[in-house]
Design goal:
There is one protein chain. The protein has about 375 residues and is of the alpha/beta class. Among the domains are: about 1-40 and about 95-160 and about 245-310, FAD/NAD(P)-binding domain (3-Layer(bba) Sandwich); about 315-365, no CATH class. It contains ten helices and 16 strands. It has helices at about 15-25, 55-60, 95-110, 155-160, 215-225, 270-285, 290-310, 315-325, 330-335, 350-355; strands spanning about 1-10, 30-35, 50, 65-75, 80-95, 110-115, 115-125, 125-130, 135-145, 165-175, 185, 190-200, 200-210, 230-240, 250, 250-255. The strands form two sheets. Strands 1, 2, 6, 7, 8, 9, 15 and 16 form an eight-stranded mixed β-sheet that branches. The radius of gyration is 21 Å and the shape is globular. The mean pLDDT is about 95.
Length: about 375
């Protein structure tokens, strides 16, 4: 055993939420260490990598990780009807480069990164870390421990913050395909399916499901493309938001996927994780209640996404056809196009008042 000098803040996981949090705290003078079990930050890729333009309000956008922008989505119904919705420059990321960019910002602010270091457990302000390269166990004293270590967070388990397991499996293929730079969304295929243009001749086509992910992706690929040339495959767990989750216990905190901060309707969580990281940094700096602050910032919208997901899970194919038909009306489309899907609390009431027939679907609440 090797006892290392005190690290003021220890972050487990070098994904977007962990790296952004490290940057925010380090630039305020905190001594920050980030421990990542993989040898390369950002890999393996386990994300579709599409966000709304709100990302630009959180960080400076760079050409090296923003590889495409899309301003139209096509949402399909089972009967093959669809609606086209204008998007405000949705951003397609190179996820590995994005994570590495945030790592560089954190390093430049003074954060120390330890790659190939696996978190083992935490007790009495001591974290046990396995140095995979040296095959050595290190004991590290820390004032704060942050779990930014993904859906199966070991920090959550060790600190007694483990929540009920509820996950989807997201699986996607990068496929060579000439395309019109339009995001396609199929909300009726399993939980949902997508086609996201990475460039003019490559798309990311995938599906989120609870069972048989590879089989379901193969079915979707054949249905959508007939013939296709797969470049590579990517997969990962998508946590389902839990409004009862505990994200703070003494000086241990959870953020991002480790705290299930993911939109249940689409599986997106990059922006939510960055907002929560910003909230956690403010809470540590100014001695606030992190749980209350992140709930205030994103909790209401995450809950609304969850409620919508539970309603949509009960839809028949006829319901999906009817919903797409209602959204094809000019007034409802205008509301969808002029609001950010990250924040449904800002427009759902207006949507229902504009198109009262949407209240038909409330029958599934009961």
């Amino acid at each position: 055993m090797i006892l290392i000098k005190m690290a003021e803040i220890s972050i487990i996981g070098a994904g977007p939420a962990g790296n952004y949090l490290a940057y925010l705290l380090a630039k305020q003078g905190f001594y920050v260490s980030v421990f990542e079990e993989h040898r390369t930050v950002g890999r393996p890729v386990q994300c579709t990598g599409i966000t709304t333009s709100y990302l630009g309000q959180l960080i400076e956008l760079k050409k090296d990780f923003v590889i495409n922008k899309v301003n139209k989505a096509r949402i399909f119904a089972p009967d093959n009807n669809f609606i086209d919705v204008k998007l405000n420059d949705n951003i397609i990321l190179d996820r590995a480069r994005f994570d590495q960019y945030l790592m560089e910002k954190a390093e430049n602010a003074g954060t120390k990164f330890f790659l190939n270091h696996r978190f083992l457990n935490y007790k009495n302000s001591i974290i046990k870390i396995q140095d995979i390269n040296a095959n050595m166990i290190k004991d590290i004293r820390t004032d704060y421990l942050i779990g930014a270590d993904g859906p199966l967070s070991d920090v959550a388990k060790s600190a007694g913050l483990k929540a009920k397991k509820d996950f989807l499996v997201g699986i996607q293929a990068r496929v060579r395909l000439n395309n019109q730079n339009i995001v396609e969304f199929y909300p009726f295929i399993k939980e949902y399916a997508w086609v996201v243009p990475e460039s003019k001749d490559i798309v990311r086509i995938g599906i989120a499901t609870r069972e048989n992910p590879k089989k379901e992706l193969d079915k979707f690929l054949i249905k959508r493309l007939k013939r296709y040339d797969i470049i590579d495959m990517q997969a990962g767990l998508i946590p389902v938001y839990n409004p009862k989750i505990k994200t703070q216990k003494n000086n241990v905190f959870l953020v991002g996927d480790a705290a299930k901060m993911v939109k249940a309707t689409t599986g997106g969580g990059i922006i939510q994780g960055l907002i929560a990281a910003r909230t956690l940094a403010d809470s540590i700096i100014n001695k606030k209640s992190y749980h209350k602050e992140w709930k205030k910032a994103i909790g209401r919208d995450l809950l609304m996404h969850l409620k919508m997901r539970k309603i949509m899970d009960k839809f028949s194919m006829e319901d999906w056809n009817y919903l797409i038909k209602l959204f094809s009306k000019d007034k409802t489309k205008e509301i969808l196009e002029s609001n950010d899907r990250d924040f449904p609390s800002r427009f759902l009431v207006r949507l229902a008042l504009t198109e009262p027939r949407l209240l038909y679907f409330l029958k599934y609440v009961f």
